[in-house]
From TrEMBL:
Record domain Peripheral subunit-binding (PSBD): where: 80-117
Protein origin, superkingdom: Bacteria
InterPro entries to which the protein is assigned, alphabetical: 2-oxoA_DH_lipoyl-BS, 2-oxoacid_DH_actylTfrase, 2-oxoacid_DH_E2_comp, Biotin_lipoyl, CAT-like_dom_sf, E3-bd_dom_sf, PSBD, Single_hybrid_motif
PANTHER family linked to this entry: DIHYDROLIPOAMIDE ACETYLTRANSFERASE COMPONENT OF PYRUVATE DEHYDROGENASE COMPLEX (PTHR43178), LIPOAMIDE ACYLTRANSFERASE COMPONENT OF BRANCHED-CHAIN ALPHA-KETO ACID DEHYDROGENASE COMPLEX, MITOCHONDRIAL (PTHR43178:SF5)
Gene3D superfamilies given in the database record: 2.40.50.100, Chloramphenicol acetyltransferase-like domain (3.30.559.10), E3-binding domain (4.10.320.10)
Residue ranges that the Swiss-Prot or TrEMBL entry lists as coiled coil: none
Name of the protein: Dihydrolipoamide acetyltransferase component of pyruvate dehydrogenase complex
Assigned protein family: Belongs to the 2-oxoacid dehydrogenase family.
Cofactor: (R)-lipoate
EC category name: transferase
Location of the Lipoyl-binding domain: 2-77
GO molecular function: acetyltransferase activity; lipoic acid binding
Pfam families in UniProt: 2-oxoacid_dh, Biotin_lipoyl, E3_binding
Amino acid sequence: MAESITMPQLGESVTEGTIIRWLVQIGDKVKQYDPLCEVTTDKVTVEVPSVTSGVITEIVVSEGDTVQVGAVICRIETAEFSPAVWKLIQEHGLDSSQLKGTGRFGRITRNDVMEFLEKRGALVEDMGSPSEQGELEEKVPVTAVRKAIARRMSQSKQEIPHAWTMIECDVTSLVQFRNEIKEQFQRTEGVALTYFPFFMKAVTEALKEFPILNSQWAGEHIILKKEINLSFAVAADRALYTPVIRNADRMDIAGLARTVHQLARKARAGSLTIEDVSGGTFTVNNTGSFGSVLSAPIINYPQAAMLTFEAIVKRPALVDGMLVEIDKVNMCLSMDHRVLDGWVCGQFLQRIRNRLESFGTGTDLYSYSV
């Protein structure tokens, strides 16, 4: 059956949107949550995801056209298989995206499944060792999400003149404090207390003092954002998503921890909404979670900067004439050099460092201002 995809509501006061670019063509197969097109309004530019899986049968709105919220922009023939075909796919543990449907609008038939199984069986019988096969490379299909990421990253690097700086921070007191309270926090809140919400809190306070970091380039002027909406990166299913914590500066550390957990879980479950990923004004990334100690992030277009927090590592240091072991973390900032210069970015990073180094025993996780 055909499913009509409509122009979504992209904000409380938004009544229309303009199709910038279609990411699919007629005949393309899509899965639920795959991006269909880029839409812009006077407030945000977002990707519209598919609400169902199936085949694109009609594109109603052309690139550059502006339509009202609720108007049909394309139609999808839903990829519903008969119960018998679906059961057959499940019994053999197949991925339906690997199957080429020969039915109407690309639907998968029983014959399609059986032919795939026969070919796979013949392939297994013929397979020898890698050296016998001579297979030295493999072609991996590029998903729609990966294509969207590639396009965004290319746009950022081509349009934004990136500059980069790094500062080191002593977080020994923070590490000790977090180790003291993490188990109690887990029992009380039901989520793990990582270092990330502490990092976010320090960033939001610094952004209030240096609002130029919370901006974007707009040609003839620079747009200073009044709200502090933190985007953060979440890796899920071989893709990268950037959900947004709105008005992050109005949250305490505990609230940030809960919100990060909730949005990360939605990202990995593939249930993020347009509202969840739109409106970000500054991006932070916890690259240290997988061991990185140094990175040069690509700015989340069209924002003016992106900050990564690297792995916390133990290093020797002289304190009051004594050699001791302290915990250090690197903060790496990529900036849009059209908007930002080294001086203000250096001041911004120093303010974050001062805040992080002040966290320790006695820090109130439930205070708006810490």
